[in-house]
Amino acid sequence: MPERAETLSPRLVELARRRGRIPALVTALAIVGYLVAQSLLGSLLTFLRFGTDPGAFGPDPFALSALGDLGFHVLPVGIGVFLSLWAIAPVSHELRLPYVLTRGGLAAAAGIIVEFVVRVLRDLVLAFQQGQGDLFGAAFPFPVFDGAWFVDAVVGSLMGALIGFVALVPLVLLAVVLLWLWLRANPRDYAVSGLIDDI
What we know:
Layout: H1 2-16, H2 21-50, H3 54-57, H4 61-88, H5 97-131, H6 147-185, H7 195-198
Helix pairs in contact: 2-4, 2-6, 4-5, 5-6
C-alpha cells in the first residue's frame, strides 16, 4: 500500500502542475454563464406565466428551482468540463477539427458524469427521508432506507443525464471550437497534453 501511495503522489503533483488551466477555466466559465442565464430566464418566464402561490408551492418556488438547478446541474457540468479540458483531453492549436470535436464531446460527457454523480448522492440522502423522517431528524441514528425509491430516483437521474448530454453537446462543441480558433490565433508557447494523450 505505501508503494502505491508513493507512485500516486508524483502523478498527482504532475497533474496539479499541468499547464493550460486558464483557457480551460475560461471555456468552462462561459458554459456555466450561459447555463445560469438560461436557468434564470426559464425561472423568470415561469414566474411571469404562473406567478407565485405560496399556499400551493411554499416560499418562492422559482428561486428554489433556480438554486437547485445551479447546484445539481450547472456547477457539476462546469467542473466536469473544466477537468476534461484541462487534465483529461485539452485542446491545442495543433489539433485538427475532428479531434477538437471529439475532445469537446468528451468534455460534455465528463460534465454530465459529474452531474450524474452529484444527483445520485442527492438521491441517496433523499432515500433516507423517504423511508422514515429526515436523515438527522427523529429517525436518527437508525434511519430507514427506501431502496425502491432510490432505484427509481437513480433511473430518473440517469434518464435526465442522457437527455442533458444531448442538450449539452452542441453548447460544449461550440465553446471548444471557439477556444480552438482562439488558440490558433494565439498559439501557446508550451506543449499541452492530457491523460488521454498519455495512453
